[in-house]
Amino acid sequence: MHKRHLIFVILFTLLILFYPGNSDYFQIFAFNRKLFGQKQTSLSLKPVGKIPVVKSLYQPNTSAEGIYIVELSTFTPLYEHNTNQTFFPASTTKVITALTAYDLFQLDDVITVKNVAVEGQTMGLVEGERITFENLLYGMLIHSGNDAAYAIANFYGYDKFVELMNKKAADLQMKNSHFTNPAGLDDLNQYSTPFDLTLAARELLNNKFLKKIVSIKEITIADVDYKYFHSLTNVNKLLGEIHGIGGLKTGHTENAGDNLISFFRNNDNEYVITVLKSLDRFEDTKNLVKWINDNVDYWK
Description:
Layout: H1 3-18, H2 24-31, H3 33-37, E1 51-54, E2 66-71, E3 76-81, H4 93-102, E4 110-112, E5 130-132, H5 133-141, H6 146-156, H7 158-171, H8 194-205, H9 208-214, E6 218-222, E7 229-233, E8 245-253, E9 257-266, E10 269-278, H10 281-295, E11 296-299
Antiparallel strand pairs: 1-11, 2-3, 2-10, 4-5, 6-7, 8-9, 9-10
């Protein structure tokens, strides 16, 4: 065979063999385009032996205006809806508050409560109460206590603390987020996106202690003098109801609607599900968990 003809046959054969079409290769690159076509915005990727693949294009039944689902080990996007649109974060803000505070305090540091008269959900802190930073983390991340968030910020220095919250967000490459208060109270200058809050969630899950806290359903804690006791119940009612849900953070205000960032584990695979401005964050998350179970497979 003529040399040119031989080269043509080889090239044509390779094209037939490796043309993506509707194969798994096509799905990997189509559904995981951010993994391969965009620089990651925070932690480096971990070596993995398998790649998540979305098997079908059916849309999950949800009311949320913003949704982002990623496979955690590779940060591969699996489902997106208004991923980079800004929303009021409500108490999902407390993920950033916790990460910021964790850099500033030791768990056994004693914080004196002051100026915590604040609206919304509280854990019942008393003015002048002396309580450990660790127990304030429980109050903030389990019970979503706005007073716990303010107690931490006020003790450090409110304005400086909020400044550090925004620095933490910048360090995590949360490019479309800004914070003006530590609790998540509505403010036109306080906003975030499904993508950015997923970055924050990933950072929290890399902290073993904070990861443990957000998975706790109920706990009772006390001040250092055992004068005040606080019974805390996790606002996330999916804990213990949906197998594989391990936290992470709820949020709700009138303007924000229902927000929920969830950590979900299934068959040793881990995901973050971020739902913003939902009519029913728990029902939406249930449907998204079902969507993951029905649609996500792994290509080896």
